[in-house]
Design goal:
CATH class: Alpha Beta
CATH topology: TIM Barrel
Helix content: 25-40%
Largest sheet: 6 strands, parallel
Number of strands: 9
Shape: globular
CATH superfamily: Metal-dependent hydrolases
Radius of gyration: 17 Å
Structural class: alpha/beta
Distance between the termini: 30 Å
CATH architecture: Alpha-Beta Barrel
């Protein structure tokens, strides 16, 4: 499986505290069957992430993972805040794209309900040949959330749900309903540390989706095929549409 959203790079943002924490996260991922993860540090005003250093930091972590015999590979990426997107140069956008391939960007919506501004930025990316993976849309709940997500999907965006939210008994029913509408394309851990918060696992959440009629037979696509295409910079076409 592939985890497209995690904060595994040590000492960069509010993710892994140090190398030991990063290694512990990777061991947890390996135990869950995750073989590839995208390191997606926050690209936004309240985190001083130096984009030009990310490739070297990813390479250093991969070297240590190999030396420790941990069967997990880390790929480049970033979690780009909606408000930070317009300030990135083409080179910076490439550097924080998922897999470093320049085709897909993990886009973090602004706080609150999803806005027309997010839709405009997704459309702007599309005109540049870049697709948007919308990070944790379940955090932006409102009466019009399904309609907002449908509008984003119509513009080529993909929806990434957080695994822990699907395993939460309070939020699971609403997320299953989104899945039934064809509005769940990817599941990621959004893990920040081995010491606290969300675990670096996705398998439990995928099991929750097994009973969703629209996506239940497409879990391999959700967990492996689509993420693999994203990190390789390929087009992605969901095998299920949105509800009419």
């Amino acid at each position: 499986m592939i985890d497209l959203h995690c904060h595994i790079l040590p000492g960069v943002d509010d993710g892994a505290r140090d190398l030991d924490d990063s290694l512990a996260m990777a061991r947890q991922a390996a135990g869950d069957g995750i073989g590839l993860v995208c390191a997606t540090p926050h690209i936004r005003h309240d985190h001083d992430v130096v984009i030009g250093e990310l490739a070297e930091r990813v390479a250093a972590l991969n070297h240590e993972l190999s030396a420790q015999g941990i069967p997990v590979e880390v790929a480049r990426g970033g979690e780009v805040a909606e408000a930070a997107l317009d300030g990135l140069t083409p080179g910076e956008l490439m550097a924080v794209s998922l897999g470093g391939a320049g085709r897909w960007v993990l886009l973090e919506p602004a706080p609150g309900r999803l806005s027309d501004g997010l839709l405009a930025r997704v459309e702007s990316l599309r005109r540049r040949g870049v697709g948007a993976v919308i990070a944790h849309p379940e955090r932006h709940w409102g009466e019009d959330l399904p309609e907002r997500l449908e509008a984003l999907v119509a513009r080529g965006a993909l929806m990434q749900i957080t695994a822990a939210a699907l395993e939460n008994t309070a939020s699971e029913p609403a997320l299953i309903e989104l899945a039934e509408r064809g509005l769940v394309h990817l599941v990621a851990s959004d893990s920040h540390s081995s010491h606290f918060g969300r675990p670096m696992t996705v398998s439990g959440a995928l099991r929750r989706l097994e009973g969703a009629s629209r996506v239940g037979s497409h879990l391999d696509w959700i967990s492996r095929q689509a993420p693999e295409a994203i990190v390789r910079g390929l087009d992605v076409e969901p095998p299920f549409g949105t509800a009419a």
